[in-house]
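INTERNAL AUDIT FORM
Audit reference: QA-55
Scope: verify that the stored structure record matches its stored sequence.
Auditor: D.O.
Record contents follow.
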Amino acid sequence: MTPSTTLQADIRNPRVTAVSLVVSWLYPQVTVRGTVEGCDGVDDEGHDRGRGGDPTGLDALECPGVEADPRGSMSNGDDRSVGEHYGRADLSARILEALRTVDRAQDALTPKDLAPVDQFHTQGRKATLDLARLAGIAPGMRVLDAGGGLGGPARTLASELGCTVEVLDLTEEFCRAGEMLTALTGLGDLVSFRHANALDMPYPDASFDVVWTQHSSMNVADKETLYRETRRVLRPGGRLALHDILAGAVSPIHFPVPWAREPSISHLEPPEQIRALISTTGFTELAWVDETASATEWFRRRAPATAPPPLGIHLLLGE
């Protein structure tokens, strides 16, 4: 089954939910957004279908700036399978070739130029900017993007809002390509990458003002540890900003989906369970917004393309 076929099926059936959440511990600073269907495939500028979750998998150019951690990935128990799902040894080269095809000068790239390939979640770059406003991201904040993939949201936050962002991601190759794209956009002083495990974050307590994650936890079985680690690395009053895929009212989902080819690496939980878990971890909820209607309409406006454009999510998922 192709990603576009899966997408069309799930637009009609509420099998998955995408939520955005901003939460805080110690002080009341929390928000959540939600979507109940149509999240099996995503694109940014209306063309390509991608994994409704965190992209993690590339390998190509040498990027000495990537800091590796032996603890590895965002998924416990099945790191190798998740890494294999997202890994593409030639992705950096393919992105560079696509940029040449669409006549994007590599010495003048902006984060917006890369949005078709690096905003790997429902409603694309708009969703990133909406979540940033919801979370109150401000200049000078230190943000951790847990499961940040190629770093599209991180570069958007840095360029638009003047904060510093560290991307913590599952797959080393993906971090390398993200580091390359960050250098090409001239944001290396604000955005950095680290290959490490979000279930054992390699940071001291109270390191960040915001932990940010967009479509990143679908491959994580141990969400309790994920949110506990998130709280640990947040400063008092810090915020968790979350935009994610959750289980819908209809099950099971149809595989393959963008974040998993088969069920063993897909770990979706229903919204009420995640909401309760985040609360018991010590966060205070500010708002929970159900975005089902807007996300469904966003998918409906994107008719399947006869052929993908040169720059798009298909570069991450394969042909």
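Auditor finding: record pair retrieved intact. The mean pLDDT is 76.
Action required: none
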